[in-house]
Amino acid sequence: MDLIRIYQCFCDRTRLRILQLLTRSPLCVCHFQDILGEPQVKISKHLGYLRRRGMVSTEKEQNWVIYSLSVFKRRANGRKANAKTKSSLHLRS
Hey, where are the domains in the chain? Predict the structure, then answer.
């Protein structure tokens, strides 16, 4: 990820608030609306901006799109891959 693109994400108060909320847990747009008191259009615009820059990722759950920080998702995927590798090595011994 390009550092300039990351810093550009921090140049807006709403985007900073969204990123801070995502450090606690994944959320959908309706949660951001309730917490931040901002309209859906504004939240969606900022989430799209953050997504295009690789800061957040999405996961579809029924009718909702759940947003999470990409960094946490990569770490979790890395842990899963490591666990699979360790378990396959254990099975071979």
Answer: 3-92
- Taken in order 44, 35, 56, 1, the sign of the CA dihedral is positive
Q: Starting from the edge strand earliest in sequence, which strands make up the sheet with 27-28, in order?
A: 27-28, 64-69, 56-61
pTM for the whole thing?
A: 0.71
Q: What is the CATH number of domain 3-92?
A: 1.10.10.10
Statement: residue 86 has pLDDT above 80: no
Do 50 and 10 touch, CB atoms closer than 8 A?
A: no
**In the prediction, which pLDDT does 87 show?**
45
How far, rounded to the nearest angstrom, does the alpha carbon of residue 79 sit from its chain's CA centroid? 17
Distance CA 30, CA 32 (A): 5
**pLDDT at 73 (0 to 100):** 54
